Every structure is written in C-alpha cells, then in structure tokens.
Amino acid sequence: MKKGLIFLGLGLLIAGAAQAAIVTNTNQSAAYIRLLSRNASTEVDAVYYNPAGLAKLADGWHLYLSNQYISQDKTVVNDFPTLNEASYLGEVRVPLYPDVYAVWKQGKLAFSFGFGPNAGGGSADYKTGLPSFEWLISTLPMQISTMGLPTTAYSADIAFKGSSIYFGFQANATYAVTDTIALAFGLRYIAATNTYEGHINDVMINPYHPLLNPTAAMIPATTFFNAIAQPAYAAAVANKGVDSKQTGSGFTPILSLHATPIPELNISLRYEFNTKLEMTNETTQDDTANPTTGDPGMFPDGAKTRQDIPAILAVGADYAISPAFRASLSFSLYFDKNANWDGRQDFVDKNSYELALGLEYDITDMFTVSAGYMMTRYSFLDDYQSDMSYDLNADTFGFGGRIKLSPKLYIDVGALIANYTDFSKQIAYYLGVVPLGAYRELYKQTTFDISVGIGYRFGGQD
Predict the structure, then answer these.
(1) Strand, helix or coil at 408?
(2) The CATH number, out of the four listed (2.60.40.3080, 1.10.10.60, 2.40.160.60, 3.40.50.2300), of the domain defined by the range 30-458
(3) How confident is the model at residue 5 (pLDDT cuts 50, 70, 90)?
(4) Per-residue DSSP letters for 166-178?
(5) What is the pLDDT, as a whole number, of residue 65?
C-alpha cells in the first residue's frame, strides 16, 4: 500500500442497482421492467424515454406512478493467501425506487413533468469490508514473525456502507410538427448525494512474547506495538473511520424526435447532453488523513470532485405486427469517454451500450403479457475495475404484464433478472518495495427487480 501500513479505502462509486449504463439508471417505469425496450414509448413513461412521443397521447391529463424493489448482491473473491476469508459480500437493497410522470396533452401540444432516481439509486452494505481494506492487515502475522516473535493469526472489525442517489426533476415541451413528426425539448435538474461510512476497528494479533504475551493469546495490536516501542505501527493499526457526504447538482438538456412513417411503426431519437456534476465533500471524520505527512485523506472537507452523467444517444422503434401483438427495439449509446470522472474515464476503452428487444401480446382487452431481453456491454482497461467499484457485462431478462381495469386505468407489473459475466484480474502486491506476488481478484454480481405501476387518464374521450 502507498499510504502506510493500513489504508482505509472508502472511495466507492455506488451505482444504480438495475442500471444498464455505468452511471445512468434506465429502469424508470414498471413498463420498462416488464419489456426492457421503451425508447420508442408513446405512453406516459415517454416523459423519460421519448418526450416527442407524447404527441401520440390522447388529449387530457395523464398520470403514472411506479415503484421498484431492487435486490443486488456484489461479491468479490480474492486469492491473496494471508486473508482470513476469500469472499466479501456487498448487499444492495432498495425498497423505495419511485417514478412519477404527469402529462397534459391538447391538440399538437404536450407539456410534461417527470421525477425519479435518474442515477445512483441504492445503498451497499459491506459488513466485512473488502480485500483492499484487509489484505495489509492480514500480513501482520508475517511481519511480526520476521521480528522473531512467532505470530499466526489476526482479526479486525472492518465494515463500510455507501449510498448514492441522484434525483432527477424533468420538464418537457412537445409539439407535433405534422401528423407524422413530433419534436420535444426537455431539461432535467439533478440533485445528487453520496454518503460514505466505514471503519477499521479492534485489530487483534497473537504474537508470542515471553513477557508481554507468553500464552500467544489474541491481544490488541496497538497495545502490543506500543509495548515494544513501535509507535508508527501502533498508529497504523489504531481504530480508523470515515463519515462523509458528497452533494452536487447539474442540468441535462434533452432533445427528442418522434416519427410515425406508417400507422404501425413508431421511430424515436433522443439525445441527452453530458451532465456536469461537481460534488463537494462534507466530512465529519476522515482518519485516512495524516497531518504529519500532509496527506489530506480520502475525503478532505470541502474538496470537490467531478462525477458527470455521460451524454446518451437513444434510438427506438415499435412495430405493431398485429393489433394484439407488438415488438419494440431499443439501442442506447453512453458517451462515457467524454464524461469527467476525475481521470477514471481514461480507463474506459470504448463507450458502453445497450441493445434491447421487447414483445407484448394482448390476451384479451383486459390482460396483456410481455417479455424482454437486454444486452449490456462495457469495454474497460483492467485498472478501471476494483473491489470498490466495478461494472460487469450483463444479459437481462424482463417479464410481466398489464391489467386494463378501464379505458382510462391500468396497472403494470414487471420483474427482471440480470445475469452478469464475471470479471477477474491479477493484482500485484507489495509490502513497501518487497513484492509479495500477483493474485487473482474476481468480481461477481446478481440482481433481481420487481415493480408495480399505475396509470390513469383524466378527461378526454374513452
């Protein structure tokens, strides 16, 4: 490690639990969860996916509310030989993930509002920390043994919890230029908050010392190092904690085009500009700082970092194969390499993208069933991925349906399961300048999401 004997690395970038892009959350309605392809939507969730498509709504007021429950497990496996455990589990549980859409449509004009967690979206709880927090502690028995004091075990209370939520407030204006072409302009305000809480406490070791520890019992490491006149080691293994919050805000201009060349076909194009986000630290504790050496630590109070939301180009098409059977196709490209992530974007090899196909079928006038598939692909250099922040290629499957309770009222129900491709890399470890070898670190992930939404139209004809 470069920052002394023990380094508390809590710089986790928490990401959305069911997102496709690195930062952006694309799961913005229950209809999306059951179809996975909504870029050409002409329903109320088009407020987010296809603002120009709102020109296809019936006249009147439209309201849509949905919520999702997201469960995600992130597992890191590390082969460093002195660790007590090889596997570390981070649990992400999101019981409240709301989206709200409202549209007023009259003639050629539509005005709309949307609210939702457009990025971030979860709280990751690593109850036993991560390999990057523990591996150096795990070498203490080896280091102390080289002093002539046989030591065989260590233990420590290591944990951290990080949360991230970027709420978006969006307004759009839509105009039908002709019967087949509509345009829209939107603006989204992002209010972002990240929080980090973590600690390394109670480091224990069992050195044999004929006077200080003749039974080789587990004793506090700080007590032992102070007793043998090693104050630098004692300071390094003392309790450490971090408690910090980051806040920032930004604006996203949005352009949208919708075309209906034939009645059965809808085609959409949406471009979201890069959202500049400058996050400011509000830190109450950061024991990674070292006033003696001038090291400011992980979260210097008042420091600013860039965590942009990348620009997006989204294309979609919906086609009615028959009055009861419809297919949709969506493609989204995320300009990650052009975002500013304080240098981390340099480890992005190619921009990420998603490709999705959705199918839905009306069993009766009241019941509709649907299913979808989405392919998400990233291209990173190895240095981009770490136990504190990683993104994995995914194949996602969604399914569900709609119940039409009346011509104006319906309920969406959906679920998705994401299958991720494991990623592994070799990490070279050094104790000072002494090489300890290179060992594999493996990143795994599972995600499950269920959602319910309700839509209602006020006024207008049935």
Answers:
(1) coil
(2) 2.40.160.60
(3) very low
(4) EEEEEEEEEEESS
(5) 98
